[in-house]
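SEQUENCE-TO-STRUCTURE ENTRY
===========================

Backbone structure tokens: a row of integers, each naming the local backbone shape at its residue.

Task: work out the structure tokens from the sequence, keeping to the layout shown below.
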Amino acid sequence: MSLSRRDFLKLGGLTAVAAGTAGCSAAGRKLAQDKLPENLPLPAADTAVSTPDPVLRLLNRAGYGPRPGDLEQARQTGLAAWLEEQLNPNEIEDTAADLLLRSLTLYQMDVTQLIEQDRKDAAKELIGSTILRALYSRRQLYEVMVEFWSDHFNIYLRKNQLIPLAKIIDDRDVIRPRALGKFRDLLRASAKSQAMLLYLDNARNTREQPNENYARELLELHTLGVNAGYTQTDVQETARILTGWTIRRRGRQAGQTIFQKDAHDFGQKTVLGQTFAGQGEAELDELLEMLATHPATAQRIAFKLARRFVADEPPEGLVQRVAQTFTETDGEIKAMLRVIFLSDEFAAAPPKLKRPYTYMISALRALNTDLSLSRNRGIGRWLERLGQLPFHWPPPDGYPDVAPAWATNLLPRWNFALALLHNELPGATPPLEKIVAAGKAETTSNVLQLFAGLVYGRALTPDEQTLFTTYTGSGPLDDPKTRLRLKDGVALMLASPAFQWT
């Protein structure tokens, strides 16, 4: 490739200005090709403007970016109607997700069957299905919220050999059924999750050998937040309440979460000034109810949601309104999301850097990419290079959600874009020729504008058009050199700030 660093950085400067203002694998292959519209219009010239498209912003932040045709359909539906549809995922016909679910062998097993399986197979199915769901599912906001809560209740797959198996249960039975429900229900289910019990060591927390790991993260990360005024004594007392909750090791119910009475501390405890009598199992529900309804929890969840969807430093007024909604609706997640996405603050939000996982999925979606995980382990390797392979963040705080955390991984993003466009990712092949045919693009200028519509959701600005055309030239589309440079040009669009900051 003959793209100079100077040309790339020059393009980046232009697009930065624009950004500042602007089994299952076979099912995957079929779905990607079926979903490409027969006709792809070139973006209208008047879309190359400085004002960001509010519908495009919603699709980029409440989803993993539009596939060809999605943006036009969402504009016709309207912002509020699209959001309401996404908030009710069970009413969305989703062939992709349904086909994928039927192909997942381990997801069909109960706990006792799962613990007999190979952990490597479990990790592959968990990660692979997560990627394919994000890529193909029409329930985009639902998948984004599954990712959000998977970070909030983070579980590192490599902590021990059983966690990949247990995390399938956690994903299937804890996170996914409650991702758009009530926070209290998520918290309760997570506290009894086999994967969480293993990851934060509460399975080994007994009266005689207390372990504070889960108790500490329950207060600091899952609910109140580090500055909520609790003390080390509160952590210790919380750990006492949690004693005895473990996993059955053998027998017909092996792998089930159980309460082991002889390992529980039945003494009286006090957490945040509230006294808990030695009632055994009931203590956990009482504790979680207190934490789920605490004002500090409302503030923390509101802040994290606003940071995820609006800005790294979200407006205080919005955070307070979301926290109030949390309190008034008993932690209803849908209600908080409505407040965020329909707010003036969201409409005026500054560009936000895509995290690596979102960047990769949105790039694949923009080009209607055919992804075959069975033939390609490269996607996972690229996510590792980019720094965000799902379920592989060792600390319990989940992958970071602010731009500075990802400032050092921009070069791998550029390299990924080039690899994708030049067919260096076997099993991940964007149908470039079909896109050009659907767009009836017969000149290099039209090809560039066509792909700008898919990648940026708008036409190229005159300056961008000049720079891209200067690089690609205006040769015939059947010229190998022209085709090579056009691929470089599309890769540059994917690597540019205008695509990464949305």
About this structure: The radius of gyration is 24 Å.
